[in-house]
Amino acid sequence: MHQPVGPPFSDTLVRRLREADRVAVLTGAGISAESGVPTFRDPDGLWQRFRPEELANVEAFLANPTLVQGWYAHRRALVEDVEPNAGHRALAALERWVTARGGDFLLATQNVDGLHARAGSERLVELHGSLLRSHCIDCAAEADESADARGPLTCQACGGLVRPDVVWFGEQLPEAAFAQAEQAAALADVYLSVGTSAVVYPAAGLPLLARQAGAYVAEVNPTPSDIAGRVSEQVRGTAGEVLPALVAALGGASGIRGQESGGNDG
Ligand code: NAD
Ligand code: ZN
Fold this sequence. Notes:
By secondary structure, this protein is an alpha/beta fold. The chain has 10 helices and 9 strands. Nicotinamide-adenine-dinucleotide binds near residues 33, 41, 200 and 221. Nicotinamide-adenine-dinucleotide binds near residues 37, 41, 200, 225 and 240.
């Protein structure tokens, strides 16, 4: 006998989205996996002998700036070489669908890869900064990463070390960005947590804040995250499969097609 195969999410999620005035989303490395960007849990060839936590902190950087800059240069080259996937595009379409109806939308990402912006997301905050920018640790001048250097890359203005504009382990998140994400979570009617293992705080606290404040919280992840037991609904599947289907269920699929036929993806 044939079991009809339906979408991996509930009618409740679709109904709650249709009724929502405010929608907020948190994404993590998992949403970029289908673009070919490894998560911190996937092996990444060249760099397999290091744990990301051992490179992504200021002590490691000061101890071996060339090594850490090299890791970021590798990651930057990688993301410049890939394209946003259907999951990124679906979130941009969801934003257009919500805002076209006069609703509020915010996407807070833990990713540093710039793929959401390239997919057309506009109401976007980057909680952990961006791989695509760098600055001098002494004078804060923005630095040009394309400069090819032997030894550590240094500031053209003052000779200080150049670091990526990312938030390292042990560092504070950008205050304004996090405040915006918190407010969106506290006010959201529906909150989506996509492709995050939800182990890195404070970002992982956002879906929980939303839930406490009364939002319907759905997690989209092929495997349960650390907070899976505390969300309203667990949607098991990849971002690239689930999110386009969800947007299509809202009647927003044309937004995704519009994107492909010459929208604003960079
Ligand atoms: P994580 O690596 O801890 O977890 C990734 C999560 O994504 C896992 O729960 C996994 O089950 C899920 N996942 C894997 N494939 C998926 C798919 N196709 N669709 C949906 N989910 C999928 O990532 P994290 O929670 O973002 O935390 C790690 C930290 O690493 C973050 O702070 C982030 O800044 C950084 N990071 C960023 C990137 C990037 O910018 N692309 C890549 C690696 C790590
Ligand atoms: Zn400088």
